[in-house]
Design goal:
The chain contains five helices and no strands. By secondary structure, it is mostly helical.
Amino acid sequence: MDGNTRRTRFEARVGLERDFLTKVNAVFGKSVPLAGMTRDAIESWRDRALERHGNIDVMAIAQILTEASARAELLADNSKDVFEPDYRPQPNSLDELRNLLEDTLMRASI
């Protein structure tokens, strides 16, 4: 694997994270912005969003974000090519999560 492939995976991960952040912040950004796609950032957002808005699908959104973050990390993890190539999620599996997030955010519009 060359450096270009690694860079492409990293760039894809960053793009994916920005996409998910943008979607969440379009709905919640003024009241409780999501700052990142790490587990800690998602949990912090979840706790603040629950406190501010109650449970308007906040838990479901947080679960989708956590799963998307984990899949993005696996896709960008170059060691998986060597040690566990069969466990790498398919890139299109994130489209499924993206669609689920969009549907859930539509229901949660505040």
